[in-house]
Amino acid sequence: MSEEKRATFGGRISAVLVAAGSAVGLGNIWRFPYLAGENGGGAFLVIYLAAVLLIGFPLMISEFSLGTATRHNAVGAFRALNRRWSVVGYMGILSSALILSFYLVVAGWTAEYMVHSVTSDLVSNTDPASYVAAFESFVGHPLKPVIYALIFAVATHLIIVLGVQRGIERASKVMMPVLLLVLLVLAVNSVLMPGGMEGLKFFLKPDFSKITAETILLAVGQAFFSLSIGLGTMITYASYFKSDTSIKQTAMQVTLLDTFVAVMAGLVIFPAVFSAGIEPGSGPSLVFITLPSIFSTLPMSGFWSTIFFLLLVLAALTSTISLHESVTAYVEEEWKLSRTKAARLTTLLTGALAVVASLSLGIWKEYTICGMTFFDSLDYLTANILLPLGAFLTCLFVGWKFDRTLFERQLYPNGIPGREYPLLRFMIRYICPIILFVIFSDNLGLI
Ligand code: PHE
User: Fold this and answer.
1) Alpha-carbon gap, residue 386 to 41, rounded angstroms
2) Dist CA 225 CA 227 (whole Å)
3) b/e 343-372 (16+ beta carbons within 10 angstroms → b)
4) Which of 14, 160, 435, 436 could form a disulfide with 9 if both were Cys (CB 3.0 to 4.6 A apart)?
């Protein structure tokens, strides 16, 4: 498709907003706190931050440059540059579809919690045990979570067929500043809770004795998941950037914002976890138990929980849009289907998988893959295998195969490389792939 015919976002600010809309989501507010809680708190945070800085940021720049250089979807981008590498694009499309499938389920939970906040029966008492029970009975229900996941799939679908520009841009613009503000208020509130300091210590004081090879892989996988990289989402999004968008600045701002939201989520959750006597290693339920128990202690609890879950729904929606868009753009451009047909196929496939993922936590619990439910195996396969592998191959490609002048032209349209360029290139060529290789080998028990 020619450059003029493709939709573009409305300029620099919007590029940051839509890319941040993709990055900021349940990864920051649901997945990050529960992984940190299960894997040593502060030590996990340190490894996570290192992964964001050393691998995440260079990789985001790499993906952006592939998108602006080719103006194609993930598969098309690799193919346009080097046919043999299009397998990295295919892996990315697969990852996007699989992530979307379980993401819709969790997004559905947030929608259900939002509805219950409005009817104000979510925060009716202060006993954490009752929130655990409520969460488990909801998630295991054969119908309710399935319906919410499907509603989310349809909402995403509608925004996608309305068009890239209008739908995505508008949603991100309103949500981000409000989300930051509410997180800030809640973080201050949590830190001031009785016993909150204990949680702050857990989250901020690293105890490296808890770190294993697997913890490192989990933290790196989470960094990719949270930044939406390693699967070509940012290639697709950058293909819509206006030609004067600064890749470096956009990547920097998105990385900072995404990391800030994750850290804020930790500051909201952990003090409250310790204050209410909740187990930090509760797993995927952690946030869904902790948040209602925070709201129940606040004046106007129904108001706060409604606002918060509404924001979470919107944050999740801007992420599901980006996952859906990656797959839809691929189907539309590579299979030469209309946008509506491409979107319909994507929604049908991921919606069906979402139903299975949701039921795998309830009535189909006993069917497992390598000891994991279908839901857990989708999460594990994508975040801990496909994304790090995709990231590894993308670094190798951009560092060693991608035409150097073309890469430089994406980063420095005025032709003058910045002072950071040699370091950045060194990171992409050597540091990122070597770190990823070592982590993989370590986890496979090879070293
Ligand atoms: N980054 C999103 C989040 O943190 C999830 C996501 C992953 C979106 C990969 C797109 C691609 O919630």
Assistant:
1) 25
2) 6
3) bbbbbeebbebbbbbbbbbbebeeeeeeee
4) 14
- The residue among 51, 84, 96 whose CA lies nearest residue 400 is 84
Q: How remote is the CA of residue 321 from the centroid of ligand 1, in Å?
A: 10
Summarised one tens digit per residue, pLDDT across range 260-316 is: 999 999 999 999 999 999 999 999 999 999 999 899 888 888 888 999 999 999 999
Residue 1 pLDDT level (bands cut at 50, 70, 90): very low
* Å from CA of 27 to ligand 1 middle: 6
Of 24, 35, 225, the residue with max ligand 1 atoms within 8 A of its CB, to mutate for a pocket test, comes to 225
Q: Is the CB of 27 under 6 A from ligand 1?
A: yes
Round to whole Å and give the CA distance between 151 and 146. Answer: 9
Residue 123 beta carbon below 6 angstroms from any ligand 1 atom: no
- How far, in Å, is the centroid of ligand 1 from the Cα of 394? 17
- Ligand 1 in reach of 233 Cβ (< 6 A): yes
230 CA closest ligand 1 atom index: 9
